[in-house]
Amino acid sequence: MEQILKVDYLTDNIKNKNKNDTGMALDVLPFLTKRTQEIRKSGFNKVLGEFIRKICEVKLDEKSLKNKELFISSEDNILSEHMADSVEFDNEDDKYDFIRFLSQYLFNQEEIKPVHPYIFNFIKVDKKLNNEFGKYASFMYESFVKGNQEIKNVFGSKETEDILTELVLSKMDVLEEQKNKQEKEYQPLLPAFTSLYQEDLLYLSKYKDYFLTSFPLLTHYYVFMYACQLILKFEQFTEADFQKVQPLYFALEMESISKRRKAADELEGFKFIKDHSINLFRHIHTISHLSHNIFNDDLYKRGQKIPFMPYSELNKRIKENGEEFEESFFRDVKQWIYKYQEWSRKKVTDDSNDLESAFKVLFNCLKAGMNAGVCEKYGKNIEDLGAGQFIKSRGSLGQILNIKHDFLLLLTAVSVKDKRIPLNELFVEFEKRGLAFDRYSKKEIITLFDNLNILDKKSDSGDAQYVKPIL
User: Which of 43, 241, 253, 359 is most buried, with most CB under 10 Å away?
Assistant: First the structure.
């Protein structure tokens, strides 16, 4: 009888490689098991250049830059020099002054300043970070924006009403077309959440100056919360709903909190994410094993990457095929549990009597058969991703999900958009984006909005208060 779960492949694969492996399944996160903390040390914004180039399907023509005959010392930025080479000057002093001016306009020390969305294409990645940050860029492109032509237009257009910027963009001809490779690397898992990101980004793009400063922060948040959501969903096994976002409680940076606050709660705040991040690597491997099944047969037989099928999706599809099919899959999972324990030499009690419990036993097998240090390092990537912006240490309370003043206003802007909305509806919009606030934080937010004059108070009733657009 044909195997529904590819037990023979999984057995051969793990024996041949002699290590835990995800096989042919697509990846879902760009994290590394050899934790480098570079995303924390170098900053999230370093990822954006490669991300935008993937969206626009271009690459920096480094050879074109290097081949230019430069008349000014290498202390000035090479891109400024390249643009100056295409402009006629009466003498070298004028050229020197122009390069100095461009460098001050476009660069902060060695960092390029995006004075137009198109400029994001020119943010470079240090060669030593190419692998790690390249993974982030591929993940972000495939999971958040792939195929969205409107977003490609935002970063691919040189249109501007600013004469200086128009001159600069007209001379920035060091990009060349590069089609993205066809084979997928990452499996998008949160369609409703990533659709919100696209909606928010496109709304902000209507306000150019604000967009230039807010786009990096918005993107950073969505990537961080996406990773948090995967931890929450994987821990729910077959009960997870990937169409819905499960909000986590944040605290405002300017408010003091106690251990009784929701943001410090073990189940509803960052403590849950931190405590369960060690399981992320284990869940990814467990689900990858289970994804080698008859539903992915065509791709499997062609030797191509197969979709990553979370517990809940797989369970639903199995049950749709009837009891006999479900029993066969259950037997295959039991067989793989036995085979895996045989390879890992780690014994785990298998008391499963249905598919859902068999998934959990398999997870426990991998938990026993994996190096705990490797799992911990992988999970701690999420702390590196959120550090300094969305995570804050609060003394004895430990790390708390944190929201700063500028991000609160950004979140309000994309939630309200162009028409005022009831205050209560604003908090619903926050929750759609993964943020929840307890009554103390809500009170602080209302006071802040009142001081900023973006709150219409019709009465003391929450239903009669409205938040005005702020862009």
Answer: 359
Instruction: Confirm if 162 and 125 have CB atoms less than 8 A apart.
Output: no
421-450 pLDDT tens trace:
999 999 999 999 999 999 999 999 999 999
Distance CA 203, CA 325 (A): 47
pLDDT per residue as tens digits for the range 89-135: 777 777 777 778 777 777 766 677 888 999 899 888 888 888 999 99
322 in the Ramachandran plot: left (φ > 0), alpha (ψ -120 to 50) or beta? left
How crowded is residue 422: how many other Cβ atoms within 10 Å of its Cβ?
15
Type of residue found at 3:
Q
pLDDT tens sequence across 240-271 = 999 999 999 999 998 999 999 999 999 999 99
- Distance from C-alpha of 337 to C-alpha of 366, rounded to nearest angstrom: 9
Binning the chain into helix, strand and coil, the percentages to the nearest 5 are: 60, 10, 35
DSSP codes, 79-114: HHHHHHTTS--SSHHHHHHHHHHHHHHHEETTEEP-
Amino acid in the structure at residue 195: S
Q: 138, exposed or middle or buried, with CB in 10 Å at 0-12, 13-18, 19+? A: buried
Range 236-249 burial, b when 16+ CB lie within 10 A, else e: ebbebebeebebbb
According to DSSP, the β-strands at 465-467 and 421-422 are antiparallel
Using H for helix, E for strand and C for coil, what is the string for 13-73? HHHHHCCCCCCCECECCCCCCCCCCHHHHCCHHHHHHHHHHHHHCEEECHHHHHCCCCCCC
* Residue 152, amino acid: K
Distances in whole angstroms, Cα of residue 60 to Cα of each of 38, 53, 138, 174: 22, 8, 16, 6
The neighbouring-strand residues paired with 467 are 421, 455
Rounded Cα distance, 86 and 172, in Å: 10
Write the CB contacts of 423 (distance below 8 Å, at least 6 apart in sequence).
446, 455, 462, 465, 466, 467
- The answer to whether the Cα torsion of 434, 387, 151, 420 is positive or negative is positive
Strand partners, 186: 27
Q: Which two tokens stand for residue 165?
A: 């910027």
Instruction: Name the residue among 324, 296, 314 with its Cα closest to residue 184.
Output: 296
